[in-house]
């Protein structure tokens, strides 16, 4: 049987999802000691490729891979993307509108908002009936209001440490984020039982891990 090809987001997502893949019975030896390798086929049932988050969707839409593992931030930033099959309990964070303490959300002048996520930002401001100028930046988003590039930012917050250490405040909470498993629709028909097995096992491993995290917290 041909292996299922899975595009896994490198970085945080890969680190958080690998233990779940292992707990679901997948051999991830190569991913553990990966060096500069990008393709991993230790388990004959699966072939993992490591890619940047937005590229997961490129590989998936193109049909080069059957499955993708990616944050919902990346999915929400796309328009009309609908293949999410499994919500994982990792990669949990939230979009917020943040700025310096002297930011006035009611300011009369048209606001300038910096973000890595222009579509999510536009949807949020459209939703509250406000027209803003959006500047797309690629990282260290928190710098934008500190340097005068923008009035405020829309970005992801997890622990809040980055905002705190840079003296920024949350002005609005937007949608939550978590890691999702997404499937190419055509592949779902072709590989139904293999994909079903993957999802069932991963879901069980994720639920078990989430429960033991709750226990850790309540100890
Ligand atoms: N602080 C965070 N806490 C938890 N999850 C996060 C956090 N920041 C990002 N994520 C999630 O993890 C995914 C990957 O984030 P990661 O920081 O590894 O890459 P990135 O910031 O998109 O890219 P880069 O490799 O350029 O830094 C994001 O798409 C999002 O779903
Ligand atoms: O609330 P915290 O736990 O501090 O996490 C939030 C930070 O994490 C992400 O950045 P990332 O580490 O991906 O770096 P980047 O600025 O290069 O995107 C996000 O853009 C925030 O800057």
From TrEMBL:
<comment type="pathway">
    <text>Amino-acid biosynthesis; L-histidine biosynthesis; L-histidine from 5-phospho-alpha-D-ribose 1-diphosphate: step 1/9.</text>
</comment>
<keyword id="KW-0328">Glycosyltransferase</keyword>
<dbReference type="InterPro" id="IPR024893">
    <property type="entry name" value="ATP_PRibTrfase_HisG_short"/>
</dbReference>
<dbReference type="GO" id="GO:0003879">
    <property type="term" value="F:ATP phosphoribosyltransferase activity"/>
</dbReference>
<dbReference type="InterPro" id="IPR001348">
    <property type="entry name" value="ATP_PRibTrfase_HisG"/>
</dbReference>
<dbReference type="Pfam" id="PF01634">
    <property type="entry name" value="HisG"/>
</dbReference>
<protein>
    <recommendedName>
        <fullName>ATP phosphoribosyltransferase</fullName>
        <ecNumber>2.4.2.17</ecNumber>
    </recommendedName>
</protein>
<keyword id="KW-0067">ATP-binding</keyword>
<comment type="subunit">
    <text>Heteromultimer composed of HisG and HisZ subunits.</text>
</comment>
<comment type="similarity">
    <text>Belongs to the ATP phosphoribosyltransferase family. Short subfamily.</text>
</comment>
<dbReference type="InterPro" id="IPR013820">
    <property type="entry name" value="ATP_PRibTrfase_cat"/>
</dbReference>
<dbReference type="InterPro" id="IPR018198">
    <property type="entry name" value="ATP_PRibTrfase_CS"/>
</dbReference>
<comment type="function">
    <text>Catalyzes the condensation of ATP and 5-phosphoribose 1-diphosphate to form N'-(5'-phosphoribosyl)-ATP (PR-ATP). Has a crucial role in the pathway because the rate of histidine biosynthesis seems to be controlled primarily by regulation of HisG enzymatic activity.</text>
</comment>
<feature type="domain" description="ATP phosphoribosyltransferase catalytic">
    <location>
        <begin position="52"/>
        <end position="203"/>
    </location>
</feature>
<keyword id="KW-0808">Transferase</keyword>
<keyword id="KW-0028">Amino-acid biosynthesis</keyword>
<keyword id="KW-0547">Nucleotide-binding</keyword>
<keyword id="KW-0963">Cytoplasm</keyword>
<keyword id="KW-0368">Histidine biosynthesis</keyword>
């Amino acid at each position: 049987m041909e292996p299922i090809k899975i595009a896994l987001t490198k970085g945080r997502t890969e680190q958080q999802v690998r233990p779940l893949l292992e707990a679901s019975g997948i051999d991830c030896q190569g991913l553990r000691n990966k060096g500069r390798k990008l393709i991993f086929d230790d388990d004959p049932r699966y072939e993992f490729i490591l890619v940047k988050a937005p590229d997961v969707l490129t590989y998936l839409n193109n049909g080069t891979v059957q499955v993708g593992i990616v944050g919902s931030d990346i999915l929400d930033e796309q328009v009309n993307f609908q293949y999410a099959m499994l919500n994982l309990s990792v990669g949990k964070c939230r979009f917020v509108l943040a700025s310096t303490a002297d930011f006035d959300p009611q300011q009369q002048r048209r606001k300038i908002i910096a973000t890595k996520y222009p579509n999510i930002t536009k949807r949020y401001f459209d939703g509250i009936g406000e027209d803003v100028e959006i500047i797309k930046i690629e990282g260290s988003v928190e710098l934008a209001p500190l340097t005068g590039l923008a009035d405020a930012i829309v970005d992801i917050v997890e622990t809040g440490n980055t905002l705190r250490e840079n003296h920024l405040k949350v002005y609005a909470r937007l949608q939550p984020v978590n890691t999702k498993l997404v499937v190419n629709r055509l592949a779902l028909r072709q590989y139904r039982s293999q994909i079903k097995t993957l999802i069932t096992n991963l879901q069980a491993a994720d639920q078990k891990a989430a429960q033991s995290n709750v226990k850790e917290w309540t100890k």
